[in-house]
Amino acid sequence: METTANTASIATILVVDDVAANRALILATLEDAGHRVVEAANGTEALAAFERERPDCVLLDVRMPGLDGFEVCRRMHALPDGAAVPILFVTALRDIDTFDLAILAGGFDFLTKPLRPTELLVRVRAALALRRTSVERDDLSELLRHQRDDLMRAVLLNERLAAFLVHDLKNPVAGMQLGAQMIQRDPATSPRSREIADRIRGQAADVLRMLLNLLDISKGEEGQLVVARTATDLPTLVREVAERLGPRADERRVRIAVSCDVGTVRVDANLVRRVLENLLDNALRHAPPSSEIALRATAVGTDLEVRVADTGRGVPEPLRERIFDRFVQADGGANGSSRAGRGLGLAFCKLVVEAHDGRIWVEDASPGAIFCTRWPHVL
After folding, report:
1. Nearest Cα to 55, choosing from 22, 17, 85?
2. Which residues in the chain land under pLDDT 50?
3. Superfamily of domain 12-136
4. Using CA atoms in the order 139, 141, 146, 152, what is the torsion angle rounded to 10 degrees?
């Protein structure tokens, strides 16, 4: 079996998937990059094509009728010179168990659906390049593969932990909210106890929001965050968010001023609600006492622009792009604290705004910061 002499040259790539639409997407991406693509709709066709075409690389679905991807991989590697061909598993099953089975079967790499064209090309080129390296330096090739596999396994384990945390903590948090609500409804409850119960409900809601942020960021990074646009009454949504965070604002002696000049918008109401909660939460933690936070929603053509301004210390200009990355903190907040979300809040905001094809940025309020979002074509 011939080895690709140059990773930049035309390579023959065998694409195996029982869903024609999946094959079409991969074919278009690889052919646009100058590669020759051979298709197979099942394991039997794949094995025949593998022997006939002698591909430089294989993209192999895991779940198929008849022979599954793991068995096909094992049989390909048993063919003459078959073990030298990198086989990249493509699957919607993004979990550590499937990854380990793929590596055990002899898989070279592991991609998850839905596929992103840029990532697909990068991973295919890496496979072709590493195949060439393996011919020249087997020891280096094995080291690189082990390091990559260890990194991928660590990423999947972290994702599993995050999913477990969200799943296992949602129920006790909901129980806290329910218990606080029952205390509030009890006629014998004193005003002071009602106030404390209200605080508990608000803090439990904050914990739940952070858990959902964690889950949705993980989904977004894999292209799995679904935006369900519906007709949404924005003034009602904005008012409800401000009212929910009102008790926290009162505690901090901060006033939330709301202005909404827009009526109905087509957005994912649940995701937008959480964006506004995160932006107001960020402003509340950095606004000085006896100050005002302004939430303004205005129309710009068919776009919606939402701006949340506070009078804290602001965000230094060099960090205004990075502030939306996970766990980034910038110096300067109320009372000298760091200026950032709780690690994920602002990252979640960026994820949701961009999922709506919009953008988010920070402006200097002198003093303070203005977090601005633009949601295109929603009016």
Report:
1. 85
2. 1-8, 136, 331-338, 340-341
3. Response regulator (3.40.50.2300)
4. 170
